[in-house]
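During the second year of the project, the team shifted from modelling isolated chains to modelling whole assemblies. The rationale, set out in the original proposal, was that interfaces cannot be judged from single-chain predictions alone. As a representative example for this report, we include one of the complexes processed in the last quarter. Its constituent sequences, exactly as entered into the pipeline, are reproduced here:
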Amino acid sequence: EAQVTQNPRYLITVTGKKLTVTCSQNMNHEYMSWYRQDPGLGLRQIYYSMNVEVTDKGDVPEGYKVSRKEKRNFPLILESPSPNQTSLYFCASSSRWGADTQYFGPGTRLTVL
Amino acid sequence: KQEVTQIPAALSVPEGENLVLNCSFTDSAIYNLQWFRQDPGKGLTSLLLIQSSQREQTSGRLNASLDKSSGRSTLYIAASQPGDSATYLCAWDSGSARQLTFGSGTQLTVLP
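Output from the structure prediction step:
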């Protein structure tokens, strides 16, 4: 089954404790991205990757890091989480940018205390 | 900066009714527009993608149209069912920004 998986689905942590949210797709997609969804602000892009070893910032990259060492994986790293990063995070992928459907993961609900 | 607006924010209809969800965007330099469905506690599911060269796309009871000149897209749902209850999001793509710009969504409730 074609899918985008994210782990963990739910996470409660404390300020400053480094964490990684994993994202994996099994469709051999080149393009992957991360979004966060907040009430009243909608979905905003954090980072994206056009292919292995190619990443770039979205609209809200501050406080986040990403890497794309393998085509299927695109982890989101919060090296020193803060309460303003409490949000619902989505990973997405598509075979190529623009012409193809975006597939979204189920989301990770992060709470930073 | 591109703005995508969805009206209404919430809509409640009886089962069987045909309905239209609206999406408007300020920048007509559109590459494609996608409609998504979001269920509570779940991710986004793509419903329809309309390329800038197309005027509409259909999938089952869903029909999405695109009018670049007026900066509008509509999602038509025929013979609505309770299972259609969800939040519907439209997303605009310029092709160059490598990201989707989302509207705030329309929360649809179909009453049995």
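The interface with chain B takes residues 4, 31, 33, 40, 42-43, 45, 48, 50, 56, 58-59, 90, 92, 97-107 of chain A (CB under 8 Å). The radius of gyration of chain A is 13 Å.
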